[in-house]
Amino acid sequence: MTGVLLSIDTEFTWRAHASGAGWLENYQRSIEPGGAGISYQLGTLAKHGLKACFFVDPLPALLFGIEPIRRMVGTILDAGQEVQLHLHPMWTQADRRVARVDPVRFELTQFSEDEQLDLILQARELLRQAGAADPVAFRAGSFAASAETLRAVQRAGFRIDSSHNGSLMPWPCNTGLPANAVSPLLAGRLIELPVGLIDEGGGKLRHLQIGAVSLAEMRAALHHAEAEGAPLVTLVGHSFELATRDGERANDILRHRFDSLCAWLASEGQRFPTCFTTDLSGVALDVPATPCPVSQTARLGRIAVQGFSNLRYERRL
User: Fold this and answer.
1) Which domain holds residue 242?
2) Domain count for the chain
3) Sequence-distant (≥ 6) Cβ neighbours of residue 115 within 8 angstroms
4) Exposed/middle/buried for residue 223 (C-beta within 10 Å: 0-12, 13-18, 19+)
5) pTM of the model
6) Which of 11, 113, 8 is CA-nearest to residue 61?
């Protein structure tokens, strides 16, 4: 049996903020875009009886107040799913009323370890104010994490981190952990839950994100992990991922992929049960496991679908 952590990074987009959107518009474009945001995802999860972890970024509360974060958290908790902590640090510099000289720092790794700790503690307090339980798991925004980040997360008292993404090494992810790590491992006193990977050959890794790999590749990765005895595979999605970049309509190709993934996970629940991070305190650690190799045929098929998706949903006529 190999568990599945289906994780959804839930966050306001800087793109919408940069265009001048207030919080209601940003919420619509980032959290509930095109009828395919978190309410749709939560409904689909409930339909199939699945668990998911929503990593929520509360730092936009520094600009917009706590209400939008409270709305996110309440929607997720009311649906019976899990809320944990996510963090994009650029929101500390988002207030247009404050004159800025220094450029915006978008990545957590652009801060010192002590500064990262302060940001994590600040974000945790905002998440609590929004109605979430004390979080036990953390994920850095954009997977921008270093060894200093992992130490800061540990110093903040977290038990679990899920920031390691070998496909994005050495930038923005530079944790010092092996690039091909895909199974839970011990990092200091932290349980690290690396994002799942496929191996495209030639040293190229690709992470298991709903918008980045096909359903066939996700299924193959889970079968591969099961064959290797891996205790867990971590999949990634976003609140806005099933919609167009402008947030105005659903991307039916990606929405269908998410629907099909959930239906398949429900049908294979005995082999691949979904879980919360709070279920993982006893997960087996440091089990040898490798990224799933994918065929050139599967890779080319995914590229073709992605090209069609971009042409249909992102190209402006």
Assistant:
1) 3-313
2) 1
3) none
4) middle
5) 0.95
6) 11
Taking the C-alpha atoms of residue 31 and residue 11, their distance in angstroms, rounded to an integer, is 7
Residue 249 structure tokens: 């309509």
We report the CATH number of the domain holding residue 32 as 3.20.20.370
Q: What is the pLDDT along the chain (317 residues), one digit of tens a residue?
A: 999 999 999 999 999 888 888 899 999 999 999 999 999 999 999 999 999 999 999 999 999 999 999 999 999 999 999 999 999 999 999 886 665 667 889 999 999 999 999 999 999 999 999 999 999 999 999 999 999 999 999 999 999 999 999 999 999 999 999 999 999 999 999 999 999 999 998 889 999 999 999 999 999 999 999 999 999 999 999 999 999 988 889 999 999 999 999 999 999 999 999 999 999 989 999 999 999 999 777 777 787 777 777 777 776 53
